[in-house]
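Researcher: First entry.
Model:
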Amino acid sequence: MDPVPAAAPPAEERQIQIHLRKIPLLAELNDEEIIRVKQDMRIRQYIKRDIVLQKGGHGDGLMFLLSGQLQVIDVTEDGRAIGLRMLTPGDFFGEIALINNSTRSASVVAMTDVLVGFLPAPTAMHLFAHSPSVARHMLKHLAQKIQRDSELRALLSINNTAKRIYTYLMQMQKQQSLEPGVPSVVENLPTHQDIANMVNTSRETVTRALLTLTQLGIAQKDAHRLIIRDPEGLKKLAHGA
């Protein structure tokens, strides 16, 4: 059973409707639909490293990340945690178990203190069936999920660990401009251990790879982000040049 955290403070409760409008899945709902979602949604708080969803749990609702950062993980038979993807505000999760009426196929862990909205299954399923915009966004999301899973399998098939790390960073970077030579940025950079979990290697290997990028002038770490000053150089390293 999922943990039952403390209720959100009143000040945060007043911000829920603002949060809902920022969620792409719900952005096109009319005011009446948003009010219904807000009335049915339960707000939950978790602290860093809390388990938000447990693998094997029942798919009893749809969850939305309102603030903070989460990581979807799976655990191998020998007990190793494998990161599947990172979640940022506006993302939703738990949809597969909900739609299939099955158990959850992975766990979700808080990377920071987080605020999560839980929408019970009946309300979520009503949206899927009666809101064209929600249905359209859900189809797009599922298609993107298939693509991400394919990219993850390709990433994990790379034998060289450094190349896996560089390829992962390439996938994370957000282009700030289409102009050649302009730096790109990896926002909300995960910890070295979290990156290690994502690419199935050790924290020390991630640290060495990031140090190499800094020494070569390809990247610069800045608080919780990584500035890729030479995207083409990162691409060459990922491809083994």
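Researcher: Second entry.
Model:
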Amino acid sequence: MHKNKEQLLMHYENSIEWVKTLLNLSETQWRTPIAKDKWTIAEIIGHFPAWDQFVLKKRIPYFFTHQELPKAPDENELNDQSSKVSKEKSKEEIIEDFIAERRRMVIAINNIEDELWDQQIKIGETSLTISDYLRGFIEHDIHHFKQIEELLLAIDGN
């Protein structure tokens, strides 16, 4: 198995398990912003499924065609919509959505043949490998997971 494929699959499996632990948070903790005028834990976790769906529908299927990749959604618009939906859903629903989309991602990534991981793709004017593109999502996850962990440490420290 390609090293980066294995790393991504392991990260996604671990992210599912980590997010499941957030079920133990109180509603107050779950709805606490990570900083003034920033998202709550609910909104952070709630924005991942929309981006996972984008990758599943508008990226991965196009990696193996000669078609141009569809334009990415407006980041702020997608995040704002995700934030709004997260405010309306329960903690359990948000976490279930996260898990469902991550499991779909695991299946889709697992189905990418190892020899294709170093294939070049072009997004706009940027050329990169499928491996590099998908590895960027690990960094995105870690950034947000670290924000949540720091908030929870601060809450527990008070």
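Model: Note on the second entry: The longest strand covers residues 120-123.
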